[in-house]
Design goal:
NTP_PyrPHydrolase_MazG; NTP-PPase_MazG-like_N; MazG-like_dom; MazG family protein; mainly alpha; Helix Hairpins; 2 domains; 239 residues
């Protein structure tokens, strides 16, 4: 089937509407048997793969590749929404997803849609977690909401950033090396992984294990109203 073989939709339909309609046709009776059998869980591997391909396209600076890979990620979102629209107990579609996201972004930008005065990007960054906390008052820790399945290096950056934002870790608490650019940082990280590999060690697992201990210490500090983990000697960073 080519694009010309797809039954025409409403004349006023946008390109996004057409994509939503194509996904619905693929998953409907008489459509694609493979598409019809997929679940949210079975699609996770493709979402992960497409996300990494988009990252690669962004970092390569290729306009055409980024256009293609953004489309692949968008397709995953539309596919999941169509699945939900036809799954008992979920019952939402792409329009509900968009409406939820619109409401979230409006709520998180009171400096644009309300009367909060934030002038610089740094001002927004400092207030961002407060905006998010207002949405989810049930969260009791700065660590709540961090996906533990993130790659260990990205998880470390996220955990340390959260701790710094609330004063549990001073921004000066860092490994005492003269690192001033990513050009310097990259080879250093590569050397660490290389050294670990030569000793039969798993760098990803080692960092993830250290992060579990760090997160336990952060939660303990929160529960005792500690204000500076670095000063208290809690975080096991070289100093």
């Amino acid at each position: 089937m080519t694009p010309s073989d797809i039954p025409a939709g409403p004349a006023s339909a946008s390109s996004l509407d057409e994509l939503v309609r194509v996904v619905a046709l693929l998953r409907a009776p008489g459509g694609c048997p493979w598409d019809a059998e997929q679940t949210h869980e079975s699609l996770v591997q493709y979402l992960t793969e497409e996300t990494h391909e988009l990252i690669e396209a962004i970092e390569s600076g290729s306009r055409d590749e980024m256009l293609e890979e953004l489309g692949d990620v968008l397709y995953q979102v539309v596919f999941h929404a169509d699945l939900a629209a036809h799954t008992a107990g979920e019952d939402f579609d792409i329009h509900d997803v968009a409406a939820h996201m619109t409401a979230k972004m409006v709520g998180r930008h009171p400096h644009v849609f309300g009367d909060v005065n934030l002038v610089t990007a740094d001002d927004v960054a400092l207030a961002w977690d407060d905006f998010k906390a207002a949405e989810k008052p049930s969260r009791t820790s700065v660590l709540d909401g961090i996906p533990q399945g993130m790659p260990a290096l990205a998880l470390a950056d996220k955990v340390l950033g959260r701790a710094q934002k609330i004063g549990l870790l001073g921004t000066e608490a860092a490994f005492p090396l003269p690192i001033e650019s990513e050009d310097q940082l990259g080879p250093l990280l590569l050397a660490i992984v290389s050294a670990a590999k030569s000793q039969g060690l798993d760098s990803e697992r080692a960092l993830r294990t250290a992060l579990r201990g760090l997160q336990d210490e952060i939660r303990e500090a929160e529960s005792t109203d500690a204000v500076d983990i670095a000063d208290a000697g809690i975080i096991g960073l070289p100093g």
